[in-house]
Write a structure and sequence with these properties.
Distance between the termini: 34 Å
Radius of gyration: 17 Å
Structural class: alpha+beta
Number of strands: 14
Strand content: 35-45%
Amino acid sequence: MKFLLLLVLGLFSCTHNYNTKVFNDYNVAETQDDPVYHSVAHVIVLDKEKNIRSGGTAFAIQNVNNNTYFVSVHHLCLMRGKDVKLLPLPAKENLRRPFDGRVVYTSEQDDMCIIRAYDTGVQFVAMKFAQSNPLPGDKVFTIGAPSGAFPTKTDGYVVGHDLLGMVPDVTDHKQKLVTSVPVFQGNSGGPVYNESFEVVGMLSASHRRYSHSSLAIHYESILKHLEVYFKKDFI
């Protein structure tokens, strides 16, 4: 069984030629073909003196009363009440209007948080969640801000769930998703989405044993927390 798992990783991770398009290489036509460009934001977390502390990625999940709610990772947000800035897709001449935001919910256990961005209008398009579990070999994508280069799009494949040295969660065996999407600092919080532009997970970390693979929070785990915060179903 262990050999089979390693074989799966080799097929969908080691031999994959990554397709990465960095921020100065994307074009308007591509952003029209992939609506996720209009759903993601570069998140800048501020300290008490309003200075930049760290940066990552978030994606929109709902627009309410001229505000947009985003999902990101706890290890970026750290605590409820944190002030953040959210930067959208660059416009002409790389100009971007920063939006003010605040962390309104966190879960350290599942490494996720919810951010409310203010006065966003129709700037961001809310993403939809998948209605069926991703399978090993499924093509997936992410758009994020590795090393601050936003938006950077990268693809990969689903490898499996809670495999390769990870300890399964007996209460939710789909809590983590293993993919061959490479991640760097700034990718955390980016959506892992399928060819139908549906969220199947959220990037959280690189794999401890296989640094060329990444770990993502399974979409069902994300929905669980959204239901707690919003008291409704987001599928």
